[in-house]
Each structure stands twice: as C-alpha cells, then as structure tokens.
Design brief:
The protein is mainly α. The chain has a single domain, classed as ABC transporter involved in vitamin B12 uptake, BtuC. 76% of the residues lie in helices and 0% in strands. It contains 14 helices and no strands. Helix 3 crosses helix 13, helix 8 packs antiparallel against helix 11 and helix 9 crosses helix 13. The protein is globular, with a radius of gyration of 21 Å. One of its GO terms (molecular function) is transmembrane transporter activity. It is found in: Cell membrane. One of its GO terms (biological process) is siderophore-iron import into cell. Keywords: Cell membrane, Membrane, Transmembrane, Transmembrane helix, Transport. One of its GO terms (cellular component) is plasma membrane.
C-alpha cells in the first residue's frame, strides 16, 4: 500500500467511525418499550436547532422518555466505550503489547476497588458520589503499575509475564474488593449490581461527575498519538528524536488510567472493550497511533452502545448486565489474539 493511500486511511476511518457512532446512538435511543422511531428522533433533534423550520412529532411522554432516560444512557454508553477503547489502545502502545487492556492489566480491578471503598464508606473513609472518580483513578494507577512492575521484575517484561502479572494483580484486587463487600453485607446488593456493569443508573448526574475527568484523559491520549508512534521505533530512536520515553510512558499511563477510572466510576466493570476495539481498528486503519487512538474512541463508543442495545432487548423486559454481553464477544476474541501473538513469537 502506497504512502499516499495510507495517509487517506485515517480520515476515511474517522468518517466511518463517526457515521457508525451516530447511527448506533440513534438506534440506541430508539430501542426500548416506548416507541420512538429513528426518523422521529432525528426530527425531534432538528426541531431544537434554531432557524430550522422543523416540527417535532413527539408527545410530552415520548419527549420525557427521550430526554430523561434514552439520551443520557446512550451518551454515557458512547463516552464509556470511547474511554475504554482509547485507554486500551494507549496501554498497548506504552507497553508494546497487543494484550494490554485496562481489565487484563489490573487497572479496572483497581478502579473497582477504589470505587467500592467509597461506595461502602465503612466509617473509616469519606464517601459520596463526587469521590468515586478520584478513588477509582487512584485504584487504577495502583493496579496497572503493580502489574507492570511485577511483570518486569518477576517475569522479564515479556507478553506472557505481563499478562500473568495482570491476572495475579487483578485477582488480588478483586479478592480484596470481595472481602470489603462481605464486611459490609448491607451494601452487597448495591455494589454487586454496580460490578456487573450497566448504563441505566447514572443519568445526567453521573455524566456531569465524570465529564471533566474524561475530557482531560481524552485530550491527553489523543495528543499522545505521535509520541507513541515514536516509541514504537524503540527508545534509542525516540531519544535521538528528542523524546523522553520515560516521561511519555508516565503521562500516557496516567491518562489511560484516568480514562479507565472515569468509565468504571459511572458504569461499573465492563470488560474487553479496550482489547477488542483497538485490534479491529488497527486492522482497518493501520498501525499508527495517531489514527488508532481517535478511531478507537469513535468505534469504542459505537461498540458499547450496540452492546447496550443487546443487553436491553435480548431478554426484554429483563435486562442483561452489560459486562456479560461484552464478555460473550470479548472472551473468544481474546483467545484468538492470544493464539496469534504466540504464533508470531515462535
């Protein structure tokens, strides 16, 4: 593939990702017990734009369902999916490891532990919804740094050792979280529902809590694409080009952990998005992180909105936990990626 054609892949897949995200969001808003067709939804939003002579066809009840239930849920799904996908792509770039993922590196387990500590309070920690993103961020940093240091010191830093270290750290943090839950049995149902993952609990209030953190994380991650491309050339080459690899890794790890924590704080534990989406994007848009990060952000949002539609409709009127739906997709995909990675290593 020529250089000129490769340069066109970025804008092309950005456009495709934007169309996919908008289409998924319209479908997500229309899915549910209350009848709202995509045409009615588009017409409603157009009617709210000044100077456009478009009349809405929705009644007050449909408009309330749209504004208070459907739109915040779908916007939250798009945000969480984009955060997890871009964080996964960033971790893969920092560690040069195709299996790096917020959930396989201990970041999500750490974020879950931090959020659980705030949710249950326990009399020895401050509690409140405003503290959940902060506690989740600190927990995510502890998780990912523990997995990275354990993988380097105990296993040499290879793909297999990093993966095993991430599993060990995640298991330990999850066990600690379970212990805390059992110590506060009165909060068990609330924490358990949050752990399974879902988008129907936060609403506009939850979005308002995490948008500032998410905005910072996304800005840093999107701005780090060029630096991650330089790191892919090797540390010596990056240094010769004026880049400080250690500083870049620290900044990107902090930003990816903040993105993971923001997602976990409002949606609970939803796995495999950060593994599945960046791999698909890499196949479609090419290996450069200047393309992978923004395209992953869009496709990650579309992926999770579609997964949420499945969670709401497969067993309607009951609702599947969103983490179950993504696990059904992500677990087989993880096996395929692991086999491909082992085949290339031989």
């Amino acid at each position: 593939m020529g250089v000129g054609r490769r340069d066109l892949l970025g804008p092309l897949w950005l456009g495709v990702g934007l169309v996919a995200l908008c289409s998924a969001m319209v479908l997500g808003i229309s899915a549910g017990a209350a009848s709202l067709t995509p045409a009615e939804i588009v017409r409603e939003f157009l009617s709210r734009i000044p100077f456009l002579d478009v009349e809405s066809t929705l009644n007050d009840r449909q408009r309330a369902v749209l504004d208070q239930l459907r739109v915040p849920r779908v916007v939250l799904g798009a945000l969480v999916g984009g955060l997890l996908a871009s964080a996964g792509a960033a971790y893969q770039g920092v560690f040069r490891n195709p299996l790096a993922d917020p959930y396989l590196l201990g970041a999500a387990s750490g974020a879950g532990l931090g959020a659980t500590l705030v949710i249950v309070g326990g009399g020895f920690l401050p509690s409140g919804p405003q503290l959940i993103p902060v506690a989740a961020f600190l927990g995510a940093l502890v998780g990912v740094m523990s997995a990275y240091l354990l993988g380097r010191t105990a296993g040499g830093g290879g793909t297999a050792s990093l993966l095993l270290a991430g599993v060990a750290v995640s298991s330990f943090l999850t066990a600690t979280q379970t212990f805390i839950q059992q110590a506060r049995i009165d909060e068990l149902r609330r924490v358990y529902a949050w752990m399974l993952g879902g988008l129907g609990y936060s609403g506009w209030e939850g979005l308002g809590l995490v948008v500032p953190y998410a905005a910072v994380a996304i800005a840093v991650l999107l701005g780090s694409g060029f630096l991650l491309d330089l790191l892919a050339l090797g540390d010596e080459k990056a240094v010769s080009l004026g880049v400080r690899p250690g500083l870049v890794r620290i900044v990107v790890i902090f930003a990816a952990s903040l993105a993971t924590a923001s997602a976990v704080a409002v949606s609970g534990l939803i796995g495999f998005v950060g593994l599945v989406v960046p791999h698909i994007v890499r196949r479609l848009a090419g290996p450069g992180y200047r393309r992978i990060l923004p395209v992953s952000l869009l496709f990650g949002g579309a992926f999770l909105v579609v997964a949420d539609i499945a969670a709401r409709t497969l067993l309607a009127p009951a609702e599947l936990p969103l983490g179950v739906v993504t696990a059904f997709v992500g677990a087989p995909f993880f096996v395929l990626v692991l086999r491909a990675t082992r085949s290339r290593a031989r």
